[in-house]
Amino acid sequence: MIKILLRIWRIFPNWFQMLVSRVVRPRFRMAVAALVFDEHGRILLFKHTYRKLAWGIPAGGLEFKEQPKDAIVREFFEETGMTIEPLNLLLADSSRHFHHVSLVYLCEVIAGEFKESHEISEIQYFDVDNLPPMLFDEKDLICAVHKDLF
């Protein structure tokens, strides 16, 4: 049922999705995100089932009383069946477009194999110079972090 609702949600224009999100969600949210690079400097991206621009970084919201590191490990596992280890906090970023702050962690995959979920249909490593169509904020973040790390 959730898969069907997410596919229907994807049909709506971005302006409508943003409007509904702002009305339904709390006024301010805290999010976490994981940047996972392989040994060749490629970034791991998720193909989201509910987005117009499907490819993006692994991310999600914090639950009440949840620690940020625990949240990104939980989100990653729920969406992929894989376990990650947050290595360090890269930055705290206040979104220019939404009412939330994201804590971005550099992470590595430590266990598991990808299992499709109702939110994520595919994962893939991409060369930073050849990223798929995705949200500009995420693309800018990836390029900036990659430049600093490699």
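Next protein, fold it too.
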Amino acid sequence: MLEGVYLALDKVFGPLVTNAHPMWVVTISGIILGGFFTLVNHLLIDQEKMKKLQKMSREFQKEWKEAQKAKDEKKLRKLQQKQLELLKLQNEVMKDSMFKPMLFTMPIFLIFFGWMRRWYVETAIVKSPFNFFLFDWFHGFYHSSLQANELGYIGWYILTSMIVGQVLRKLLESY
């Protein structure tokens, strides 16, 4: 079943993959998928609920610090009860914010990386002029034979998509 999907991806993106430098292919993929995944998160997560939760957490932290500073044991016990309610709400919001987007993004992510692996497994996408600990750390995930100054497609994709995601989240004022 996946072979058919991979063949379709080859037909659509094959000319790009065969004619462009791997760094550009993975960079463009990171930008497109990072942006897409960020938009999916933005649309599926209740932003108002997240803002409300963050505001409540900040207020709780402030109250907790003030009560600790004043050594008000009665207020601290009261705040512990409030903390339990806040944790329940945080748990509910986190469940919603992780599960819904993952239903859409995980299959795309897995298919994409399976397909990219066919083209770029053990290919140095980016080379650094020096050994960089993060590159070596990425290599540890999949027991790569790349050098400590080389980064493969997974590492380069993660870096590019993280940057795009952060910028887009800031622009959308998303969580």
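About the second fold: The longest helix spans residues 73-120.
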